[in-house]
Amino acid sequence: MRRFELFSIWFFLNLVSPSVVGAVTVGFYAGTFDPPTLREMAMVRCAFGDASVHKECQGIGKKISRVVVVVNQAGDEDPLASTRERVLMVKKALQKYGDRVEIIPGSFGS
After folding, report:
1. pLDDT at 96
2. Which long-range contacts (CB under 8 A, 24 or more apart) does 4-11 make?
3. Largest separation between any pair of C-alpha atoms in the chain
4. What does the alpha-carbon distance between residue 19 and residue 38 come to, in Å, rounded to a whole number?
């Protein structure tokens, strides 16, 4: 079972209509992050416009205001770290984005 491919979701949600205050676009990214990999963190960095990940990321970053990262429980898998520890690892890896990123624990499929 490939935890990254099976437990990650990437989609965007427009929260506010452009006619009201301006468009706010939030990206949601979920996974087990056990442990957080460079590839997974690169996905979030790309959402914030980090062109060092890929040249197209710069344009993506202009469209996304905020990213919510959901750290799922491991489910039936035998995790290397607890959910709390994984949340802390992801927070540390993405701390330079400050208020633009929110890391929350979650549960897959419930």
Report:
1. 94
2. 4/31, 4/37, 4/39, 4/40, 7/31, 7/32, 7/72, 7/108, 8/40, 8/43, 10/43
3. 48
4. 38
Across all residues in the chain, what is the average pLDDT? 78
pLDDT at 23: 60
> Is the Cβ–Cβ distance between 87 and 71 less than 8 Å?
yes
Distance separating alpha carbons of residues 85 and 11, to the nearest angstrom? 25
DSSP state of 31: E
pLDDT tens readout for residues 35-70: 899 999 999 999 898 888 888 888 888 888 899 999
Sorted by sequence, the CB contacts under 8 Å of residue 103 that are 6+ apart come out as: 69, 71, 87, 90, 91, 94
The rounded distance, in Å, linking the Cα atoms of 81 and 14 is: 33
Six-digit token pair at 12? 């965007």
Sheet holding 9-16, edge to edge: 9-16, 24-31, 66-72, 101-106
